[in-house]
Specification:
Helices cover about 20% and strands about 30% of the residues. By secondary structure, it is α+β, with helices and mostly antiparallel strands. It has 2 domains: about 10-50, no CATH class; about 135-495, YVTN repeat-like/Quinoprotein amine dehydrogenase (Methylamine Dehydrogenase, Chain H), CATH 2.130.10.10. Strands 3-30-29-28 form a 4-stranded antiparallel β-sheet, with no helix packed on it. Strands 4-5-6-7 form a 4-stranded antiparallel β-sheet, with no helix packed on it. Strands 8-9-10-11 form a 4-stranded antiparallel β-sheet, with no helix packed on it. A hairpin with a 4-residue loop joins strand 9 and strand 10 (about 225-230).
């Protein structure tokens, strides 16, 4: 190797050549010699290689690594097993430790000076919390007569597809020439819809099937249920019979995640929840009447406006026109009491109800002028409630990424983003989306791309800032602690309320007993008084009669008509 060095390395030119290793040294230390040159420093690195024995082993692997007792083909059982594993404190601790380590190195990688010094253990500063959002696209109803975008559903696999149901929600005010069509959009091509769905009546709700993504099911304004197969065209494959369907508009339809993937159930303001199998749509497989007296009388039933079902839970929730949340048993054939309990707290129809994707026991309700977070264990009141707004809230949903974030839309066209860890009285972000009312909202599961449907049929796509779509450090643990703390507080308040109610009840019983005793005493006193008065009256009358008799005996009888003088009577 020939090198031309000068006294100052920074000003001289360094020539690089390969240096072959010395065979003698290689035999002694069993290592390779490497040469590396930086811009101004010549470095030599030697790495020692130790001899190891390689052993090949095989592992018998079952899909998902499920235990022997768990059937991997049963979606319900596996989902319940996953939920139980995630609730394990040991599992949570391990996941949180791994997440914190990965978060540290990801932040180092994203910094400007990536790994400047391996010995530097400096901690990356926390990012400032500045939530924001911006409108990136719009999907407009292609018809001249505009209708409300009443329901939105993202494709389970293709995140560029969005199904939108259009209808007029004003009672008996639909224009005569209004179109009944609903559409499937590709958000990358916003000029025209990708596919048209042609129902016999305007669709109010529309949902993709998560097992077979080519199939959609929808509920119509006239009460009928129908399903479409995108491979078969725009016409519905099958519709429910008119005599066996709902009598009022269908506001919610949900797929049941079963092995076959052909079962669904629907809710309507006629007070019924009907279960369907799309292979036989002539009549429902099961029926539940939301009668509070549990007699099955549809005239006294609650009108259903919204509904929520989590596959790992044994109950489903129904939001009613009366402002009550009705908890119902999922399997109607195995129980004589399908309605478990009710939750009261709203003053108007519950337009949206959804369980927290991280904590299914806690659910969100949107109604009247507030949004509330509930716990299944507390029936008397909600855990958290937003302030009362000046305009009505029409829809809401949880974030699929962050357990502390949820979204609400209002009648004045405003989108509110709430973060209960940041603040609870006011939204973390309030954005004026449009001038007309926003009736629907849905968040894409892949990220925090939010779509909002307006009264004039325009669907606006909003991109959330990274603060709102990135799970924060220890967020899940903090939200869990908050829910547990609020639940304990409500239980204590509930116990105190019951104790006071019992005390008032017992005091009222004692007061009633005292009142009855007092009334009896007064009645006896009154009777004795009147008896005494009557006796005194009788005594006075007897004394008066005796005085008169004595006076008549002592006084002689005088002739009141004396004879005139000088005349004699005939008797004389």
């Amino acid at each position: 190797m020939e090198m031309d060095h000068s006294s100052n390395l920074t000003e001289s030119t360094v020539e690089h050549e390969d240096v072959p290793p010395d065979p003698a040294l290689q035999e002694i230390c069993g290592s390779d010699v490497y040469t590396e040159f930086s811009e101004d420093v010549l470095m030599l690195e030697v790495s020692t290689m130790t001899s190891t024995e390689k052993v090949s082993q095989g592992v018998n692997h079952v899909e998902g690594g499920w235990p022997k007792k768990i059937n991997a083909d049963d979606v319900e059982v596996t989902a319940r097993y996953k939920k139980n594993c995630l609730k394990d404190e040991h599992c949570q601790h391990i996941v949180m430790e791994l997440a914190s380590v990965m978060e540290h190195y990801l932040r180092l990688k994203e910094s400007k000076n990536c790994f400047p010094d391996l010995k530097d253990d400096s901690v990356v500063e926390e990012m400032e919390y500045e939530p924001s959002a911006r409108i990136i696209n719009m999907l407009r109803d292609p018809n001249k007569i505009k209708r409300t975008a009443s329901s939105l559903s993202w494709h389970p696999l293709d995140y560029h597809k969005l199904a939108v149901a259009y209808s007029c929600l004003e009672f008996q005010r639909a224009p005569k020439k209004m179109s009944f069509d609903s559409y499937i959009w590709n958000i990358e091509i916003c000029n025209k819809p990708e596919m048209i769905l042609k129902p016999v009546s305007p669709l109010i709700c529309l949902e993709y099937n998560h097992r077979d993504t080519h199939i959609l099911i929808g509920g119509s304004y006239n009460g009928q249920i129908g399903y479409w197969d995108t491979r078969s065209g725009s016409q519905p494959v099958q519709m429910s019979a008119t005599e066996h369907c709902h009598k009022d508009p269908v506001y919610k339809v949900i797929w049941l995640q079963t092995k076959i993937g052909t079962e669904a159930f629907s809710a309507s303001t006629d007070g019924q929840v009907l279960f369907w199998d799309i292979r036989m749509m002539n009549e429902p497989t099961k029926q539940l009447v939301l009668d509070p007296s549990k007699k099955g009388n549809r005239e006294n039933a609650y009108g259903a406006v919204s509904m929520e079902f989590e596959n790992s839970m044994a109950k489903f929730l129904v939001g009613t026109e009366q402002g009550l949340v009705v908890s119902c048993n999922r399997k109607l054939e195995t129980t004589d009491d399908p309605i478990v309990c009710t939750y009261s707290g709203h003053h108007g129809p519950i337009y949206a109800i959804q369980r927290n994707p991280f904590f299914p026991k806690n659910f969100l309700t949107v109604a009247d002028w507030t949004a509330r977070i509930w716990s299944e264990d507390i029936k008397e009141s909600s855990l958290i409630s937003t302030k009362y707004h000046m305009t009505s809230l029409l829809d809401g949903c949880w974030s699929p990424v962050r357990p502390s974030v949820f979204f609400t839309v209002k009648m004045d066209g405003t989108l509110d983003v709430w973060d209960i860890l940041f603040k609870q009285k006011d939204p973390a972000l309030s954005l004026k989306v449009c001038d007309e009312a926003l009736y629907s909202i849905r968040v894409r599961d892949k990220d925090s791309l939010v779509c909002c449907g307006s009264q004039l049929g325009t669907v606006r796509l909003l991109k959330m800032s990274p603060d709102l779509c990135t799970l924060q450090k220890n967020e899940k643990a903090l939200v869990s602690e908050m829910f547990e703390r609020e639940t304990k507080r409500e239980k204590i308040l509930e116990a105190q309320y019951r104790e006071r109610h019992q005390m008032k009840h017992s005091c009222s019983e004692e007061d009633e007993g005292r009142k009855e005793d007092m009334e009896e005493l007064l009645a006896c006193t009154e009777t004795e008084f009147f008896e005494t008065v009557e006796a005194e009256k009788k005594k006075i009358e007897d004394e008066e009669k005796g005085r008169r008799k004595v006076a008549c005996v002592k006084t002689p009888k005088q002739d009141t008509d004396p004879k005139p003088p000088g005349k004699e009577s005939f008797s004389d």
